[in-house]
Write a structure and sequence with these properties.
This protein is mostly helical and 389 residues long. It is built from 14 helices and no strands.
Length: 389
């Protein structure tokens, strides 16, 4: 009965994922190009883009704690989505000075980063009886990302880059509409695990997991900040940039859809290790051969293991390690350790080094961070026995 009710409740979550990652499919590939068109410096571009990850250091933990304390997630998701729309509207309507954009982007990202961890916790809870089912809901986010990366690339071949903020605002409004349609989900009683979060975080496996997530996100920091600019500097046009981003996400969709079968064959710890090994290869290819279309394409094919396998394994391990009443906080801490601290550090360091070494230097650092993750994973996460069909 639980599984039946969960499956019936998943459509609104799939819709939320679709529009949330459609927003990311526009923001990720093209926001850096837009900031570059405003003649901001490399450091300013890195700082403005990193606000989305810096906000995830503080915001998800706060919102996750508030949701677990109140036992309700939907009002926070809806409030944060509406606040993001209002904040970004002020960005669109004001002169694009660095100071003004910094202040309002910081506010927008503080609210926007509240919703996704709470939705992730709800989706993991609803699919808890069906291993791999989470990925088949999350895949709709990848589909939204794919479609918007492609559409954005073609639109911006004909529209000026000044249209990017207005397109972002429209997508944020659609996210708020999707948030309104989300149902409230059952959450375990607060008293069930009161006072035990610190003990969970002290477990060696949990510390290693968050360390691996930090290093993978650090490796992705230059990718989300400078990959499109690197492609543009290498001579790729906007539509081809959109296609390369979309190709990675298309591979990601296939992996998410196949995750139930993959998870029956490989332990989550082994999936985590595989994702980090592939990340070493992927970022080394970008560092050495971004100007060679065949190698650039090969690097994007590796987005499937470096993002999809990594994310699905991380969500599964967090659901395993954290008690039921800690799930929202666990998801929030995952966002903090990875996209927050890790992504911010990687993106800001890339901004500081971009003018000195460009693509070769910053993506070599990405490959190094992923290699450190491989070593940490090998030492600290013991793989479970593989289970066959």
């Amino acid at each position: 009965m639980i599984a039946h009710r969960a499956t019936g409740s998943l459509l609104p979550f799939a819709l939320f994922y679709f529009w949330t990652f459609a927003y990311s499919g526009l923001f990720g590939p093209f926001w850096g190009l837009y900031l570059d068109s405003l003649r901001f410096s490399s450091w300013q571009i890195a700082l403005l883009i990193s606000l989305s990850t810096l906000a995830r250091i503080v915001a998800p933990g706060f919102w996750g704690w508030l949701a677990d304390r109140q036992g309700r997630r939907r009002p926070i998701i809806l409030l944060s989505s509406l606040a993001s729309v209002l904040g970004f509207a002020l960005i669109c309507l004001h002169d694009k000075t660095f100071a003004w954009m910094f202040v309002w982007l910081a506010l927008v990202h503080f609210f926007w980063s509240a919703a996704l961890p709470l939705v992730e916790a709800s989706t993991a809870w609803l699919t808890r009886a069906q291993p791999g089912r989470y990925s088949q809901v999350r895949v709709w986010g990848s589909i939204g990302y794919l479609l918007m990366a492609l559409l954005g690339g073609y639109l911006l071949e004909h529209w000026p880059l000044a249209s990017v903020p207005w397109l972002v605002l429209a997508l944020l409004a659609l996210i708020a509409l999707a948030a309104y349609g989300l149902p409230e989900t059952e959450t375990p009683a607060q008293a069930e695990t009161a006072g035990s979060l610190a003990a969970t975080l002290r477990q060696p496996a949990v510390m290693v997991l968050f360390g691996c997530c930090f290093l993978m996100a650090f490796a992705f920091g230059p990718y989300y900040t400078f990959y499109s600019i690197g492609l543009k500097n290498a001579g790729y046009d906007k539509s081809l940039i959109g296609w390369l981003w979309a190709l990675g996400v298309l591979c990601e969709i296939a992996v998410f859809w196949l995750m139930p079968r993959i998870m029956r064959r490989m332990a989550l710890e082994r999936l985590m290790l595989l994702s980090l090994v592939c990340a070493v290869l992927r970022f080394a290819l970008i560092a050495l051969a971004i100007d060679r279309p065949l190698w650039a394409l090969s690097a994007q094919l590796l987005h499937a293991p470096t993002f999809a396998l990594h994310h699905a394994a991380a969500i599964g391990l967090i659901h395993r390690y954290f008690a039921l009443a800690q799930q929202a906080q666990g998801q929030g801490l995952y966002i903090i350790a990875s996209f927050g601290v890790g992504g911010s550090a990687g993106g800001l360091l890339a901004g500081a080094l971009w003018d000195q070494g460009g693509v070769a230097l910053v993506f070599a650092l990405s490959a190094l961070a992923a290699a450190l993750g491989v070593g940490l994973c090998c030492c600290g996460l013991s793989a479970k026995t593989t289970v066959a069909d």
